[in-house]
Write a structure and sequence with these properties.
The chain has 22 helices and 27 strands. By secondary structure, it is an alpha+beta fold. The longest helix has 29 residues. It starts with a strand and ends in a 28-residue tail after the last strand. The C terminus is likely disordered.
C-alpha cells in the first residue's frame, strides 16, 4: 500500500477522489492500494526555549544569547490526534512507500519532513509536485513523481529558515524586551518591513509644503493650463510663486485673443501586462478592489483549493514554461463568458496563439508558474463576491497578456495669449489593444481635445487662478508596501547589493501578507482607511533596533542564501554559523543600547493581541479648556484628568481621519491646547469654540469641523461650564 500525505483535508479529498479512495477511516481515506491522509498545516514545530531547558522559562539577560547545539521539535498539542493518525499509518507494515503531497513549496516541504522525521519513519518516499487541483493536473502529477531526495535542498532551505527565524527572533525579542521593559517583537522580515513604514512617516513629517498658484484659461471648446516654456520639467513649470503674479496674468489674458502656437502628436505604446504572481495580484487587488494583502491571499486560496478554478497562488513567478503552450490554449478555449468572447479576439496566426517571452520563459519559472485560470469554469452562484472579483482579475489578465499593445497619440496643444503660454493635453487612441480587456486606468481619462490647427485663434472666455500646495508623500497602502517588500533594492545605493535584493525581497510572496498583519497585531502599525501607518511604538522600536536587523539588506542576503541552499550551492552549516554570529551581535547590541527611549508597558493575550489598555499619562504643560485641570493622554484620546467629576473635554486621536487629516499625537494636541492652532505640511488644525477645524494644505475653508466632546455626564453633578479663552495663533510644530 502507498500512503499519500497531503497538507490540508480539502486537498486530500481531491487526491482520494482521483485515486478512487472511498473507504473512510479515522483521519484518512483508503482503497485497496492507497491511503490518503492529511496534515492541518504544521503538526510539528520547533520547541520553545523552556522546553529545551526549564531555566529559560524566566526571561533573564544573563541567559542570552540562547544558542543550543540543536533545535528539537515537538508535536503541536492542538493537532496531536491527527499526527498520531499519520504516524500509525506510516508505521503500518503494509505501507511500503509514502508520497509527499503537501503544498509544492518551501513551507510545504518542511511540513512533511518534520512529520516524517518525528514519526520515526525510514520508508522511501516520493514527491508529488502540482500547481493545480483539477483531476487532470493531479493525474499528471502522479505520472511524474520524483524521489523525495530530489527535494533535499528545498527541505534544508526550509529548515534553515525556520531555525534562523527562531534563533534571531527569540533572542532579539527577549533582549530588547528586557532592555526596555516592554513586550517587543523583533524579526528578520517584520522589522525591516516596519522600517519602511517608519521611513515614510518621517518623510511625511519632514516634508515642507510650498504654496503656489496655477491658472486655467477657457478657450471655449477646450481649456489650457498656464506654464513657463523656459522650464522643461512639467511637474513645476505651471507653478506661479505669488498671488500678485497670478492675478496680473489673469488680468492680462482675460477676454483677449489667443492663438494656437503648437500642436504635437507623440506616438505612445503600452505593451500588455505580464501574468500575475501572488505579489502583483495582491497589489492589483488592493488598488482596484480595495483588498488587503491577507484578504487577497485568503480569497485566492479558496479559488485554488475549494473551487479549483485557478492554479497554485503562492508563486513568485510571472512566467510560464514553453511546454504549457498547448495547455494555455485549451484553458482559453474553456473560459466562460464574458471571457470567451474576449479570448476570441486574440489575434492568431494560423490558429495559434502569439508567442512572447513576456509570457513564456523557462529560465524565469521558479517552483511554480504564474497564476492562471484552470480549465474548470467556476459556477458563478458558488463564488462569493470577493471570489468573483478576484477570479475576474486573473481571467482577464490571462486574456489581456495575449492582446496587442495599447497604442495612442499623446496630443499637446500650446495656446498663447498676451505672450502667456497655456498647455492642453489629450490623446487619440489608435489601437485599444489589451485595454479592451482590462479597461482604462483612471489617470488616463484625459480631456478630449478638438481638432485644432496651428495658427487658429480663440478668445479667452475666462481665466481663473487657484491656490495650491505641494503634497507630502502618501502613506503606504498594501499595494505600495508590497512593492517595496518585493523590491527593497530600490532603497539601497550599493549597485551590487541592488542586484542581490532585486532577486530576493523581504519575505516570500506567501508570507508577505502575514508579515503586514503581524505588524498590526503586535501594535507596530495600524490601518487608517486604506493606509498603513507606523504607530508610536513601531517608530520607537526602529529608533533602537540595529541597522543589521532593521535594514532590508540583511534579510535580502538571507533569502539569497536560502535560495542557494535549495539549489545545492551553499552548505546549510555555513549559513547557520552566520546566523549564530548575528544572534549574538543583536543581543549584545540590545544590552549596550543607550538611546533614551521609553515604551509603554502592556500585556498581551492569546495570539499576541493587546489585552489591556495602558494607563493614561499626563500631557505635560496643558490644561483643560473647560475646567483648568491637567489634560491626559490615553490610547485613543486626549481628555480632562477630572473626567470622573463630570468634565468631558475630549480630543479623539482619530477625529480627522475621515477628512484625510493626520492622526492627532501628543505634539499636535499640546500645540492646539497652548496656542490654538498648528500648521504643518498636510495643512492646518485649529481649536476654536468647541470645534476642531482642519484646513488641508492650500485650502481657505475647513474640510472638517468636528464638535469636541464638551457635554457632561452629570450623574447628579453640575457639568463644567465651557471656558472661552483667547489664544495666540502662532506657528506650532507640524502635524
Amino acid at each position: 500500500m502507498i500512503l499519500i500525505v497531503a497538507e490540508k483535508p480539502s486537498v486530500a479529498r481531491d487526491i482520494a477522489r482521483v485515486l478512487g479512495c472511498r473507504e473512510r477511516g479515522e483521519g484518512y481515506l483508503a482503497s485497496k492500494d492507497h491511503a490518503v491522509t492529511w496534515a492541518v498545516g504544521h503538526l510539528v514545530t520547533l520547541c520553545e526555549p523552556d522546553e529545551i531547558d526549564p531555566r529559560y522559562k524566566k526571561w533573564r539577560a544573563e541567559d542570552l544569547p540562547i544558542l543550543p547545539d540543536s533545535l528539537p521539535t515537538k508535536v503541536i498539542p492542538k493537532t496531536r490526534a491527527q499526527f498520531s493518525v499519520i504516524k500509525k499509518l506510516m508505521q503500518k507494515p503494509e505501507v511500503t512507500r509514502i508520497i509527499c503531497a503537501t503544498d509544492a513549496g518551501r513551507e510545504g516541504e518542511l511540513i512533511f519532513r518534520l512529520i516524517y522525521e518525528k514519526a520515526g519513519s525510514n520508508k522511501p518516499f516520493d514527491r508529488l509536485w502540482i500547481s493545480s487541483l483539477t483531476d487532470a493536473a493531479i493525474k499528471e502529477g502522479f505520472a511524474q513523481l520524483k524521489p523525495g531526495s530530489a527535494y533535499d535542498g528545498l527541505y534544508q532551505s526550509a529548515l534553515c529558515r525556520s531555525q534562523a527565524d527562531w534563533l534571531v527572533g527569540m533572542n532579539a525579542s527577549r533582549a530588547f524586551t528586557l532592555k526596555y521593559d516592554a513586550l517587543l517583537s523583533v524579526g528578520r522580515v517584520q522589522t525591516p518591513t516596519l522600517a519602511l513604514l517608519v521611513k515614510r512617516a518621517q518623510e511625511i513629517r519632514d516634508f515642507v509644503s510650498e504654496r503656489f498658484f496655477t491658472i486655467t484659461a477657457d478657450f471655449g471648446d477646450y481649456q489650457g493650463k498656464w506654464f513657463d516654456p523656459k522650464i522643461s520639467d512639467d511637474r513645476v513649470n505651471h507653478r506661479i510663486p505669488t498671488k500678485e503674479q497670478a492675478d496680473a496674468i489673469v488680468k492680462a489674458v482675460a477676454k483677449q485673443e489667443a492663438r494656437v502656437r503648437e500642436v504635437t502628436a507623440t506616438p505612445k505604446r503600452e505593451v500588455s501586462p505580464q501574468l500575475f504572481d501572488l505579489t502583483s495580484l495582491q497589489r492589483d487587488a488592493n488598488r482596484k478592489l480595495g483588498f488587503t494583502a491577507a484578504r487577497t491571499l485568503k480569497t485566492a486560496q479558496a479559488l485554488y483549493e475549494t473551487h479549483k478554478c485557478i492554479t497554485y497562488p503562492r508563486t513568485d513567478s510571472r512566467y510560464l514554461p514553453t511546454d504549457m503552450i498547448p495547455r494555455v490554449a485549451k484553458t482559453l478555449d474553456a473560459l466562460a463568458e464574458p471571457y470567451a468572447t474576449l479570448a476570441a479576439g486574440i489575434p492568431r496566426k494560423e490558429g495559434k496563439l502569439p508567442f512572447t517571452p513576456r509570457i513564456y520563459n523557462n529560465e524565469k519559472v521558479s517552483d511554480h508558474h504564474a497564476i492562471l485560470p484552470t480549465g474548470k469554469a467556476p459556477a458563478p452562484d458558488k463564488l462569493t463576491k470577493d471570489q468573483s472579483a478576484l477570479y475576474d482579475l486573473i481571467a482577464r489578465r490571462l486574456v489581456a497578456a495575449f492582446y496587442p499593445a495599447f497604442e495612442f497619440d499623446q496630443i499637446r496643444v500650446v495656446t498663447e495669449a498676451e505672450n502667456q503660454a497655456f498647455k492642453s493635453t489629450g490623446r487619440v487612441v489608435k489601437e485599444l489593444g489589451w485595454r479592451l480587456v482590462e479597461g482604462m486606468a483612471k489617470n488616463q481619462e484625459e480631456e478630449q481635445l478638438p481638432d485644432v490647427k496651428v495658427g487658429e485663434t480663440r478668445q479667452v472666455k475666462s481665466a481663473k487662478a487657484k491656490e495650491e500646495a505641494t503634497k507630502p508623500p502618501s502613506p503606504h497602502t498594501d499595494a505600495s508596501l508590497l512593492y517595496y517588500m518585493e523590491r527593497p533594492g530600490a532603497l539601497v545605493e550599493d549597485e551590487a547589493l541592488q542586484e542581490t535584493l532585486r532577486k530576493n525581497g523581504l519575505g516570500t510572496p506567501a508570507t508577505r501578507a502575514a508579515i503586514i498583519e503581524r505588524l498590526i497585531t503586535v501594535g507596530y502599525a495600524a490601518r487608517r482607511g486604506k493606509a498603513i501607518v507606523a504607530t508610536e511604538k513601531g517608530e520607537k522600536l526602529i529608533q533602537v533596533a540595529p541597522e543589521e536587523i532593521a535594514s532590508p539588506e540583511m534579510t535580502g542576503r538571507w533569502e539569497q542564501a536560502l535560495e542557494e541552499i535549495a539549489g545545492g550551492k551553499m552548505n546549510p552549516e555555513r549559513f547557520m554559523a552566520g546566523i549564530r554570529r548575528l544572534t549574538a551581535f543583536l543581543v549584545e547590541a540590545a544590552q549596550k543600547e543607550t538611546k533614551p527611549v521609553q515604551f509603554e508597558r502592556e500585556q498581551r493575550g492569546k495570539g499576541g493581541r493587546i489585552r489591556n489598555t495602558p494607563a493614561a499619562k499626563p500631557l505635560e504643560g496643558t490644561q483643560c479648556p473647560l475646567c483648568g485641570k491637567p489634560v491626559q493622554e490615553s490610547a485613543k484620546a486626549f481628555g480632562c484628568s477630572d473626567w470622573k467629576a463630570g468634565c468631558r473635554f475630549t480630543l479623539w486621536k482619530n477625529a480627522l481621519l475621515r477628512a484625510k487629516g493626520p492622526m492627532l499625537n501628543a505634539r499636535i494636541a499640546k500645540a492646539l491646547l497652548t496656542q490654538g492652532q498648528v500648521q504643518g505640511s498636510t495643512g492646518a488644525i485649529r481649536l476654536e469654540e468647541g470645534k476642531l477645524l482642519y484646513f488641508p494644505a492650500g485650502a481657505q475653508q475647513p474640510s472638517a469641523s468636528i464638535s469636541i466632546s464638551y457635554e457632561a455626564k452629570t450623574k447628579g453633578k453640575t457639568p463644567a461650564k465651557p471656558a472661552t479663552a483667547t489664544r495666540k495663533k502662532a506657528k506650532a510644530p507640524e502635524p
